[in-house]
Amino acid sequence: MNDPLRFRFLTSATRLDQLPDSAAEVAFVGRSNVGKSSLLNALGGRTAVAHVSKTPGRTQLLNCFAIGDTAATAVDCPGYGYAKTSKAVRATWGPMIEDYLRNREPLRMTMVLVDGEIGPTPLDLQMLDWLRAEQLDHTVVATKHDKVKSAKRQRRKRDLAEACDLEPGDVVWVSAAKNVNIDRLRDLVRLWCDLG
User: Fold this and answer.
1) Pick from 64, 63, 35, 37: which is nearest to 48 by CA?
2) Domain span including residue 22
3) How far apart are CA 147 and CA 118, in angstroms?
4) Taking Cα atoms as reference points, which of 122, 98, 121 lies closest to residue 110?
5) Sign of torsion, CA 101 91 118 184?
6) Between 20 and 30 A from 165 (CA), which of 10, 47, 100, 139?
7) Residue whose C-alpha is closest to residue 97's, from 81, 121, 73
8) Does some domain include residue 41?
9) CATH number for the domain harbouring residue 45
């Protein structure tokens, strides 16, 4: 197993200009309850880096983390879709995330987390269409690999990739609970951020 990324919380922000300087950055986006916090904790090798909640939509800000002792950072974006917050609060998330993804200069890669158990939702596909239209680098990460029965995995991998308009090999399948492909995703983050 390779070394954890050792995420260290820096700040929460509502605007781009509130984020700290960064040499290179990766972002996590996905619908509420897709497992973003669990994945961040697994990549970081700690259980308390990102708060895991049973209530979808708890992440309401751009949460920025240092990656170990490097000048690189990671940002956890608010989950889109269902969330127990007011419509007024939810309405601010779209513009905030779009401004961040479109204009954050050090951003190297956006990881779009898709629930591997249920496949991409219309909101996931909308996010992918938007990223493609904006010509922003992104990678689809399918979470909850362990929840898909082993007999159905190959079929599910093909179907999910096809629904996202990708080849099966283009999707990174992970399980935070069972540590599936966590090392591979850590290596990708290091590659994207030039961490060697």
Assistant:
1) 37
2) 7-192
3) 10
4) 98
5) positive
6) 100
7) 81
8) yes
9) 3.40.50.300
Structure tokens at 189: 């983050």
Domain count, the chain: 1
Crossing angle of helices 182-192 and 36-44, rounded to 10°: 80
Q: Which two tokens stand for residue 174?
A: 């992970």
For every one of its 196 residues, what pLDDT tens digit does the chain have, with 9 covering 90 and above?
Answer: 589 999 999 999 989 999 999 999 999 999 988 999 899 999 998 766 665 444 444 457 899 999 999 999 999 998 887 555 556 655 666 788 999 999 999 999 999 999 999 999 999 999 999 999 999 999 999 999 999 999 999 999 999 999 999 999 999 999 999 999 999 999 999 999 999 7
Mapping DSSP to helix (H, G, I), strand (E, B) and coil, where does residue 63 land? strand
Task: Output the six-digit token pair for 142.
Answer: 């399918």
Q: Which residues pair with 62 in a beta bridge?
A: 13
